[in-house]
Structure to design on (140 residues):
């Protein structure tokens, strides 16, 4: 009985595009906010691990926290505003492109671990963008 109820709720999530969109935005905000906190709290150790200058790491962390708060705010209405969601999707696509370019061009002199981390972040952010875009299209 629990399995049926759980699968029904899970299927309902995908049937309600506005609900899925809000979930995708909130998951993005949570992951982004956690990442921002890590950059702020552990800027010095991350400098050694990722090859990212501590000052740059702190600035990046502060930016990510502000961005996470904005994405969370966008997710609050029952039907998030289309223009706001499109802006989030575009920002996520830009982040993805810049993350990959950072590795290819060698910006910030990232270590191997830092380069892998940047690519992994790009994949996650691209996934959020794709889910948000798909949900937005279905929510029309």
């Amino acid at each position: 009985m629990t399995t049926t109820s759980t699968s029904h709720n899970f299927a309902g999530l995908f049937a309600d595009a506005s609900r899925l969109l809000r979930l995708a935005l909130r998951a993005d905000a949570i992951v982004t906010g956690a990442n921002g906190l890590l950059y702020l709290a552990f800027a010095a150790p991350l400098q050694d691990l990722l090859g990212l200058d501590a000052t740059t790491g702190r600035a990046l962390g502060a930016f990510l926290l502000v961005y996470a708060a904005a994405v969370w705010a966008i997710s609050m209405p029952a039907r998030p505003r289309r223009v706001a969601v499109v802006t989030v999707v575009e920002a996520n696509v830009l982040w993805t492109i810049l993350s990959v370019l950072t590795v290819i061009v060698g910006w910030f002199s990232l270590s191997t671990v830092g380069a892998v981390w940047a690519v992994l972040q790009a994949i996650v952010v691209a996934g959020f963008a794709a889910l948000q875009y798909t949900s937005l299209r279905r929510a029309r």
